[in-house]
User: Fold these one by one.
Assistant:
Number 1:
Amino acid sequence: MILIGLGANIPSEKGGPEVTLEAALAVLNLRRDIEVVQRSRWYRTSAVGLTDQPDFVNGIAEISTRLGPLELLSVLLDLEAEFGRERRERWGPRVLDLDIVDFDGLVADLDRDGLTLHLPHPRAAERGFVLQPLLDIAPDWRHPTSGEKGSDLLKKLDPTQKVDVL
C-alpha cells in the first residue's frame, strides 16, 4: 500500500486549501503511471513546528503506481511546484505539501540526483494529521518500522493535537 500525505494552509491559484488538495489528487489521477485508489476525509489541523499560521487541511490518499519511491517523490515535488509551492522556511505556510508516508512497507533511506527520501516518513507516528486520516482508509495499518498499529500510535499522541474532520 502506497500512502501519500496531502496538506495545505494557504490558497493556491486553484482556490482554498481543500479545493487545492482536490485539484492535486485529480492531477495525480490523470497521470498514466499513478492511480488514486482511495482517499481519506479532509481534516482541519493545527500547524506543527511554526504554529503562528493558519490551520491546515490534511488528508491521506492511497495510490497505485509502477514508479519507484524516488521517481514518485520527483513527481510529487514537481506537482507542488506546479501549484505554486515555494520552499522558504521549514514548517512554514504552504499552498501544497505532498509526502510519501508509506511505500509498501519499505524501510529505507534513499538518495539519488539530489533527492533524499526516508521511508516510512520519519514523523508519521508523531502526527495526528497523518494518523487520523490514514486510519480512514487503512484501519489495520501498522508502522513499517515499529510494527505498532496506527490506532495505538494515535492514542499515544498529545490530546491537544487538533484534528477535526471537515
Number 2:
Amino acid sequence: MKNLNKTDISKLWLQVCFEDDLKAFELLFKSLNPRLIKFCIYYVKHKEAAEEIVSDVFVKCWESRQNLKIIANPETYLFVAVKNLSFNYLKKYSNIHLVQIEESNEIEFVNILDPEKEMEKKELFFQLDKAIATLPQQACIIFRLIKEDGMKYKEVAEILNISPRTVQTQLFRAMKKLSIILSEHQLSSKKAKYALTKTLGIFFVFFKVFFLSL
C-alpha cells in the first residue's frame, strides 16, 4: 500500500478517535505497519518480535482511542510508542539470544545488458548495509530514518527524545564514517580487479607461448 502523507494520517487518526471509524483504523494500520516493523527491528533484531510489538501498539491505540484525541502528530506518537515497547521487550528478554532477521525473498531485476555493473551495484549496496550495521545503534537508526524513510531532523529528534542538533551531528558523523568505509572498499576492489586483470593477462601470454611452441 502507498504510504500516506502526514495530512492523510492526521485525518485518519481523527476519524479513529472521534468517530470510532474502524475502516480508517485499518487504512492507518496498513500504511504505517511496514515502516513501524522495520523501525522496531532496529532495536529487537527479530522480525516476529517486531511484528508483535507493532501489533500491540495498534491494539492499545484502538482501545485507548478516546484518550488520544489530543495527539498532534500521530505518526511520531506511534514511532515513540513502538520504541518504548521495544525497550520493554529488550529488558524482559535480555537473556534471550535474538536471531537475525531472515533474508528477503523479493524478486530482483538484473540488467542483462551489463551484468558486471549490476553485480558491482549489488556489491556496493551490500557493503553499505554492512557499513551501516557497524555504526552505533542510535547513529544507525538516525541514518536509516532520515536517509531511507525520509524523515526530518525534528521528527527523528522527537522519536528518539534528543535534540535536532544531536540528530544532525550524529548523522554527519555517520555519513563521514560510511564515506571512509566505502572509499576503502572501492580502493580495495580496484586493487583486486587490477590484480585479477594482471593475472589473466600473464596467463594469456603463457597460453599463447605454449601453443605457438607446439
Number 3:
Amino acid sequence: MVKDQLGRTLQLNTIPQRIISIVPSQTELLYELGLDETVVGITKFCIHPTAWFRQKKRVGGTKNINLETVRTLRPDIIFANKEENTQSDIEQLTGICPVWVSDIQTFEDAMSMIEAVGTIVGKQTLACSMTMKLKSLQYTSLQKYPHSISTLYLIWKNPYMAAGIDTFINDMMRMAGFSNVIQQQRYPILEMETLKQLQPSLVFLSSEPYPFKQKDIDALQQIFPHAQLILVDGELFSWYGSRLLKSFDYFSALHEQIH
C-alpha cells in the first residue's frame, strides 16, 4: 500500500506494468525514468517528449478525460494532480484503477512527488539521484540570488490573472530571486485599477497557459511604465517534474536579461 499527496491510501501489490499519466510534467518525468514501454496513455497536453506526444494513445485533455479510452487501455495505475485534473474525473477514474494524486505548491512537494513516483514504478534509485541534483541546484540558486526583485507573474489575459503566494510558481520565483508582488492566494483576477496600483520592477508574461506575445508587452508597458516586461517560459516556472533540471540555468539566463 502507498499514500498519495492527498493522504489517500492506494492498494498496489506489484510494480505497475500499464501506466496512464494525465499530468504533462509528470508524463515527462515518467519518460526520464525510462518507462517508454510501460506508459500506455497520456493527455493531449503532454507535449514532452515529442516522441510520446506523437505516438502514445491520448485519453483527452487534463480536465476532460475520456473514461472509455482509459478503460480500453487497462491501466494498473493513473498519475493525476489535484490542480490540473478535476475532482469528478479523479473520482470516476478511481473506479477503473488506483489513481495516485499529487498536490504540489512548493519545491519540496515536487521532490517528494518525484521520489514517490520513482518508488511506485520501480525506479527509486534514479528518482533519488534526480532529486539530489535538483536540491543541489536549489541550494546554489538561493545562494546566488539572496536579494529578491519585486515581480508580477501574469498567467492569463481577459481577464488578467496572476500567480499568487500559495502556488508552485511562487516558490520557483522565490528560489530564482524574484519576490511576488501578489499576496493573494491561488490565481487572483486583477482588475485594471488593481494592476495600476502595483509597482513591480519586473512583469513576467508566461508562455502558458495563456501564450503572451510582444504585443501584450507593448500594451502593458503603458500600465507599468517603470517596469521591465519579459516574456518567460512558463514550463520552467510551473512544471514540477524532470523539467526542473533545466529551470535553474534558465533563471540565470533570465537575470542576464534584466537591467
